[in-house]
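Model: You mentioned two targets. I'll fold them one after the other.
Researcher: Yes, keep them separate.
Model: Target one:
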Amino acid sequence: MVNKVLLVMFFLSSVHLAKAQHEQHHKSQAESDQNEEDSARGYVLPMSHAFSLTLPMSRNGSGTGWLPDSSPMYGYMLSHKKWVYMFHGNLFIRYNKQDITEKGSRGDEKIDAPNWLMGMGQRRVGERGLFRFSIMMSLDPLIAGGSGYPLLFQSGETYKGKKLVDRQHPHDLFSELSVGYSHRFDSNMDLFFYLGYPGEPALGPVAFMHRVSALNNPDALLGHHWQDATHITFGVATIGFRYKSLKIEGSSFTGREPDEERYGFDKPRFDSYSFMFSINPNSNLAFQASQGFLKNPEGLGDNVKRTTASILYNFPLFPLIKKNYNFSTSLIWGYNNSGHNHQEHSISFEPAVQLNKWAIYGRHEWVQKSSEELDITLEEDKTFNIQAYTVGFNYTLVRHWNINFTLGTQGTFFKNPNDLYSIYGKNPLSAEVYLRINPSIMNMGKKEHGH
């Protein structure tokens, strides 16, 4: 059924594409000459959205996902001839102690450095076409090792054949290698294609590492494998169509999550599929709803039907006075149905306020996890309601070469049911201290190098 739907989408879009190409196939020479002149003078050419010549660059999220248009962007831009490039990333050098009360048996502490680095480039193809590529890498497996970093009540993936529990798995060295092409019919309509190995299918919200509301938090969400864990998928193909502020897209991809070999490339299977509907009603809001059918995502034989919905909100504070004053928040729901009485929900809410050098942020999570998920042996499988409340703040000590060096701290209060007191203690706590290194906020539009 899914293949038929994707075939119909492709056929209708191809008909429209042929019609548009027939109507207008001459390139705008004046615009091309101006771009060449700007590039020769050392200006950064304006960058559009990765999958639309009409939409703003600030709507770029992870994969093909959308952020609010008003979202700030942190990174570097440069241009060379007909190409425009962007680079960004995040590095936390931290001390992380989970369960500072030490009343449970699953706490741990570690000095580690969650990190990622991404580069992307794009160029126009004729007047209506846009080609883009992106590369994302992480040194998590080198720094954190195969078992990742401590995080109470976290679960998902394996290490040395055993489930990873109370730890966040490391991300692969190559987290994205993707290409894409989009065609603009007019200012209201785009058709686009996306191929990744690895890449991200049309399923779930913009991944936590790329959401503005989560940029200051070093930790993955406890609901990661309910919401956005498919952001690293070894083999994904997506086709999508935008009409004004609406977008519909479908993906075929590999359901199995990355294996324990974090430096290699897993076998592409294309045995799963998903659909996503997105809408940005104004410059401050981004909505999405999606559903995917994942074959054996954890390698344990169970298939999962995953459903998600999210609201991302961003509001620039004092936009006419200060560029780095901003409020952002995300509300995310994820639901996994793997059968066998395993139907579990998760909800995440994460607000963040950026006041130039100061940032205050938080996260509240409610997630249902089974005794099997938490690797707890009981006579019969049970589902536990886990809550986590995180509050953090940081201050940018130095800005040099357009790089922020920011000192911060955060703490988390976990609320767990009575049945887990003997394992985790009653309402364990965690604390972290970190130095964050990331690019400064970008000026949108043209600017000269070095200014």
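Model: Target two:
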Amino acid sequence: MVSALVLTSCNTQEADEPEELPFDEASITNVWHQAKLRGVEFRAIGQEPAWLLEITGGSEIMLSTDYGQIVKHHPYVEPVVRQEQRRTLYLIDDENIEIEIHGQPCQDVMSGEEFSVSVTIRTATRALKGCGRALY
């Protein structure tokens, strides 16, 4: 009860204006927020075909491709960081997968959403391009 009184007394908004809370229902149901709550530290998406990457440091690297038809969980590997080039490289040897995170702005082709980094995933048969962000 005391905390409610303190919050009310500090509120400078008009009585009929709703107060903005840091965690509204939209942020709770947001897939990026949910990933962060699961411990994901980096998340990336790409289109055509749709793919998803989630890196949980010290735990795993999850890659979902082909609109979610193929989902693979790989043990976490330490990245090679090339700070002067603003590049981080994860090499998953068991399947010859290279994940490159490049510190340059990126825009998702489907939604138009802006991201802080571009991501390229190379396999033996193709290259997937998309955008991502750190979640910590």
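Researcher: Noted. Anything on target two?
Model: The chain has three helices and eleven strands.
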